[in-house]
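Q: Predict the bound structure with heme C.
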Amino acid sequence: MKSFTIMFVFAVCGVASAADYDRPPIEYGTAPTNDVITSLNEKIRKGNAELKHTDDHGYLKSLLKELDVPLSSQVLVFSRTSLQRSRIGPKTPRAIYFNDDVTVGFCQRGDVLEVVASDPNLGAVFYTLDQNPAKEVAFTRQTESCLLCHGSSSNQGFPGHLIRSVSPDRTGEPVFSRGTKRVDHSTPFADRWGGWYVTGTSGKQTHMGNSIVGGWPGQDDDAENTNVTDLKPYFTAANYPTTHSDIVALMVLEHQCEMQNRLIRANFQIRSALHEQRELNKAFREPATYRSEGITRRINHACESVVRYLLFCEEAKLTEPVAGTSGFAKEFAARGPFDSQKRSLREFDLKTRMFRYPLSYLVYSKLFDGLPIEAKTRIYSRLLEILTEKDQTKEFAHLTKEDRRAVMEILRETKGDLPVDWKR
Ligand code: HEC
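A: Predicted complex:
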């Protein structure tokens, strides 16, 4: 009996690693999904929705419309770094489209559309849609093939989103000896967009977009490829639903992917910690509400990583104005929600930083709302401490008094699930 207890404790006490996500309580590969593709698949199956196929883009445009994903979010990546690499290159970049809940990947003559959808319990759920019009229109959930890259060590082993900057050669192949970089809102412009097309202006803030190692034929290695607003010289952009790879859409996507990854990791880590605590309480006949210091520490640690990123700690500063070309910024900002003074967390600054009010709009997302209550309670209490200046640590010194007050006021009016101590 005793040895059983010891073995049991070993089994449940090991720090939950990412590879555990197929076991309870997450059961990533087998638990039912609850995301925008789950419902669209169901609508299609019942005949309540239909995706239209066109010769040039297959189901892409129809899918984006069904999912309410704006065409202005289009960004183009020409490095051969993803699933359908043989279809990708400087003349045939891969296009990516997104809104808060879903990201869609398209390749010219690609076999499938690639989709990542946010699920409140499972985080990032991966799907493919066969582009062959002769086949049945149905999304296939992918629990292994995508995770080879999207669940690799670059995301600490958790299933999640991927954005990289590489040094591509003239075929789009990354030159690995020059290094590659994960990108999020903390990455300096100078290191961003290697292997991507970028349309928009950023003044003297140069970046790696629109460039290849050695320079395009007829160009020097260090030719100016920043402040490009028309991609015509590079490839036939008219072959795509829009001709843009908007710089602001890129910045938002990069902010979003890392925010989503942190929310997913926190969700998995905290639910695993709570699950362990429940099992231990049962084994040791502790009251069901008992929580050890170790478990509390793990929960708080996971929440802190979310809080810091929500508040744009370590965001790369802008030194000059940034402007896109596709109208993305306007459409994005119009989505709200707005408070009674017409303020919104989606309002852009784009002069010294990305957003006017430094709290991520992903506080309204499915992934945030899907966090266990224990996590939300902790995150809201930390936010309140910081926004009311009770927490004055250096980490949050980038937040002015006015920033903190504005963010608190906006949240109070636009976020329905705030704890009572927020209401004063
Ligand atoms: C060979 C590695 C690899 C595989 C396998 C892979 N991806 Fe990706 N994926 C990437 C990389 C790298 C990026 C970053 C953009 C780029 O370089 O193209 C990315 C980006 C994406 C994006 C946009 C950003 C994001 O993460 O939301 C989507 C959507 C996506 N992949 C979907 C999928 C789906 C669906 C599958 C499986 C059917 C898949 N990918 C398989 C490497 C891969």
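A: The two ends are 52 Å apart (CA to CA).
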